[in-house]
Amino acid sequence: GPFQVFRQTVQLLGGFLPARSLDKLYNFAECAGLQLILGLNALHRNPDNSWNSSSSLSLLKYSAGKKYNISWELGNEPNAYRGMAGRSVNSSQLGTDYSVLRTLLQSVRYYQRAQLYGPNAGRPRKNAIVLLDTFMKNAGSVVDAVTWQHYYMDGRVRKVEDFLKTRLLDTLSEQINKVFKVVHSHAPGKKVWLGGVGPAWAAGTNNLSDTYAAGFLWLNTLGMAAAQGVDVVLRHSLFDYGYTHLVDQHFNPLPDYWLSLVFKRLVGPRVLAVRVAGLQRKPRPGRVIRDKLRIYAHCTSSSNHNYVKGSITIYIINLHRSRKKIKLAGTLRNKTVHQYLFQPYGADGLHAKYIQLNGQKLVMLDDGAFPELSPVALRAGRTVVMPPMSIGFYVIKNINAYACRR
């Protein structure tokens, strides 16, 4: 779930979080069924540059007294502190600080088993990779999951087409590989989380990051991260930070929110391999054919009671400017398929702030409830047809897939 907004809120308060604000924040997370992860201020430093944990300890004691079930982080993008805050914390110091925080958590009885995540490194370029490597050496054992952040492009990029470049979509794959290589050289099997992701840094791109076009990047991020073994993706952000938020200032969902909601309802954590015949054309020498049709498959979410265990959800991104026909082969062939097809709503095309599902514009109902997100049933054996620039989720019902029954 997209919790990054909470981290942002706390850091803006400069290390002093009024009790009332924490109460509101925690109650909001509880009501929404979200797990709250609180980012503590890492730049609260002693004269010898070691982390000053005094205000964090009082926050821990307050939260423990209220029995708040919270997970913890320390700082945000430590490799960028010099540029952002005019001071730096080297990676071995950061490792020590995390060890201090773990000891602190163990000293407060309610948080002895609390989860701790970090170091929340920035994009894995050279300095961030070096930081991650030293951090893992010194503190890899004290964190429950290793986190880093990925932003696809500079916020100054201005064209909607920039979201559709397959080269851009594939940068994440290379970065995941880099991070896994470092993490697993120190701690094989350690969970890796994408601790913050957005279409652009510098607070996103006005009138682009909050449009239908950004959805291709978001859904591809979820598919690619899952396929490569990333356990959790945290979205940056839920509300009112730059232009990468999921809801507007009136709390109306933007296109990425609707995609996230349907993803949560239909896509379970177990990833399946996808074999596609007919896409592997030989490129002319010197020319790379980048995949404009992206297909991912998972077991259907077990919390969705509309579908029995053993169902499969396939989700497809069609970046072509023409429609594409997809035939389901083998055991998938003669099964009823539920289609959830997304396209932009209205005349703005890729710039649309609204999205339609199976031809219906998605908006909240008057009483603040979600509309019915109903599928269209495709009869068994029918070819799946994806319009140009569309995103579709397809649940193959009653297939009783062996990998999804367990």
TrEMBL record:
One of its GO terms (biological process) is extracellular matrix organization. GO terms for molecular function: hydrolase activity, acting on glycosyl bonds. GO terms for cellular component: extracellular matrix; extracellular space; membrane. It comes from the Eukaryota. Signal peptide: none annotated. InterPro entries: GH, Glyco_hydro_79. Belongs to the glycosyl hydrolase 79 family. This is Heparanase 2 (inactive). It comes from Gadus morhua (Atlantic cod).
